Amino acid sequence: MSPPLLSRRRLRRGSFGGLGLVAIAYVSIDYLSPWQELQPILWAALAIAAIIRVPFYKHWSLELRAAIPFILSIIFMLSALLVEMISVRSVTAVLGLDWHKATPPLPDVGQWLLLALNDNLPETVLYILRAHIIGLHHYLMLFIMLGFSVLFNSVEAPGLGLGARYMFTMGIARLLRTIAFVSTILPSPRPWCASTRFHVPSYPHRWAQKYYVPYATDSNAIRQIIIRDKVYGFTGDHNVEFQPDWGSMNFLADFLRPTAYEGSSQWYNLLKKGGGGCNDLMYSGHMLVATLTAMAWTEAYGGYSSALIWMLVLHSAQREIRERHHYTVDCIMAIYMGIFLWKMTGLFWPIKDTLRDKRLNKLEQIQSKLVQAAKDSDLDGVRELLEEVELSGQVSRGPESRLMWLFAGATIFFTLVVVLLAFTLLSDG
């Protein structure tokens, strides 16, 4: 099969038919209020269709081989999300509510441009730009649909392999995002966010009092810090921090700074409130998920439907900026990082392209035998040769796969070292 023919088949497969039509229907039905009662019917129909296709699926061996990387990727991603949840509250609590109320948002040219366009665009266009057409859960469900579409031969098997790569990339991206927004705390574009969403002390943590408060509003003091390269000012009396009784999890208190109102509950109830923060800005987690979904869809399915998903990604980005959930740079960096990390993991996880190349190479090797078997009407021989082609594309743990998990392990180790170092500094502060 020639490469142009493969490209034409991919283009036809990725058009607005099939999976693309289902994706558009899902987003449209969920957005249009009068049709929302059709959503359960749509999912019931998709579930029934998937169950019917299961007995006819021919790539269970590929799925079983990809099961272990899939499970490990889930564990890796959940671990990254746990670190992120702790850090989300930490960056909000470390400086206290007084800082959030007194610190104005940063100037954002992207927000200014959107406000300027509001005076020059028709009302219909503004209504579309402001509409909540697609959200985070839509992007996640679109990827789930993409993974299950292997049952219908819409994308290449294994579906678990695609899911493993998606979650592995998500885990790396979440860890890098956590390191980014913990490194420099940016004021929220919504100054009221911290006081409405969190119960944190009004005063800064003693660590922040020592290294930030004495110099934050004094340009001469900042100059002296640059010259002396050490802390020299008097920080004042440290406020007494509330100490919860969390048992073995007490070490989290310095990061989360719970109040007496929250500290009486279990520590994990506090973590639940870290699902979304005010200062976890650089870069946007929502736009990261949207970009990774668009990248996976483009690579696995392609066609006009992927172009539509990219348009929805841009729509989500301008809405994040318009509603001041993020600065413009947060959304731009999330799109950059999503594209970069998906391409980067593709270097270590070239499962789909490798399988295709192996099958094509094997097909070229046995082409003469296959033609001869067809001329001789030897159906058993043709079947055996085609099975050889299929088996040649089985997933194996090659050097790329081992390097991928080595990279994941190094990333987790580095993150743990950063967390332990921060805990030591907070304790000594």
From TrEMBL:
Residues 277-344 form the Sphingomyelin synthase-like domain. Its main location: membrane. It is found in: Membrane. The chain crosses the membrane at residues 12-32, 38-56, 68-88, 294-315, 327-351, 403-426. GO terms for cellular component: membrane. It is a multi-pass membrane protein. One of its GO terms (molecular function) is transferase activity. Keywords: Lipid metabolism, Membrane, Sphingolipid metabolism, Transferase, Transmembrane, Transmembrane helix. Coiled coil: none annotated. GO terms for biological process: sphingolipid metabolic process. InterPro entries: Sphingomyelin_synth-like (IPR045221), Sphingomyelin_synth-like_dom (IPR025749). Belongs to the sphingomyelin synthase family. This is Sphingomyelin synthase-like domain-containing protein. The lineage of its organism: Eukaryota, Viridiplantae, Streptophyta, Embryophyta, Tracheophyta.
